[in-house]
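Re: the 440-residue chain
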Amino acid sequence: MAEVKPFQSVHYGPDYSHVLKSLITPPYDVISPEQQDSFYESHPFNVIRLVLGKQFNEDTPENNRYTRAADLLKQWMRNAVLVRKSKPCFTLYQMDFKEPEGNVKRIDGIVGLVKVENYGIGKVLPHEKTYSGPKRDQLELLRACRANITPIHAMFDDPDETVLKTYHKLLTTRPEQEVKDSDDTIHRTWSIYDEKRMHDIISFLRSKSLVIADGHHRYETALAYCREVESQNPSITGESHKYVMSYLTSMTHPGLTILAAHRMLKDLKDFNKELLLKKISDCFEIHELDHEIDDIKTASKWLSLKLQEFADVGGHFGMLIGGEKKFHLLKLKESQIKSQYLDNRLPEILTDLDVTILRELILRHGFGLAIEDSENVIEYSPSVEEAVTKALLGEVQVSFILNPTRVDQMEKAAELGYKMPHKSTYFYPKISSGLVFNVF
């Protein structure tokens, strides 16, 4: 069902292998303005200049961050800063990482090209909704550069480890690229040229659906670009515009890790703590937790462990009001409460999700916040410590701490054709921008 193929990937040239740490970045959508500045300063060839270039007041339609990225990409290719593989291959990509709780884990998968198709026909399935702003931005970049700079992350069902068995021996050899990033995640890559291995991977995935884990905006952008190219040139013969670079992992890989995307609200007009507590008390029991918050790191870990006690129950959230030094635990009242406040057209798989309960019963009912108006007032972070710190310092008006969405919940929703709310999952770690490019 999924059409996957190898390609002539692009990567930094051998002269830069010793400075890879100074050249790579996380995906564009998790880079803060401060990190953007830091990446700019780290090296003149850092990929930040392509994936998230700076904007200036004097930018014009002819000279802006997209046109500058396109010019730089061409220049780097001409000068062998970036080089292209001599023939098509899959890239084997492995990451060693540490979870926030300290557990050391490893995940691996392959990078190839996936043919873009409309959702819902059984080949590529989404699991969460997207925002229009990032898609407009990514489409401008794709038009200018004709390149995928960061792979999307998609998953396939492989309980027997069929794909892993095609490449596991390669993992024992010396990688072509190896680098430790700023989060201490170790990234390694190898090239899979063997025709039989590639054929076996392609044949196996042809019978599978792919569920997008990370990169919905990039996938939908690639699809929009494909449709745009074909509408402007109906007789086009090439196929490079029909594919998007993708990192593909097994859904049952022991290293697959989902963190929660905690919510931090800011810039809310007429925010009133007492009114908020009164409104959400319609749906939740509100308990003030007796725990010191002098040591933020320790207190954040304690709150995470406290919430984990309710991971299988659902409907439990940690809450901190901006500027206050105390935790609240929100506990959903009897299950019938959901039927009073949730849209009865929502399927059960979605109404059981913490992200849905928070969106409908807290954001919509408690804050009166329309979902279409929430893009600029909600910050997301996988770090409990960050969400706690910003609330304690009064940098946000309120932080909500969630348990992570489970893989089985995400998979079931995708298979049934339902999209979860925005930022329902935070897959960790993130594949880097800068180790594998698709330039077409």
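The chain has two domains: 4-257+428-439, 261-403.
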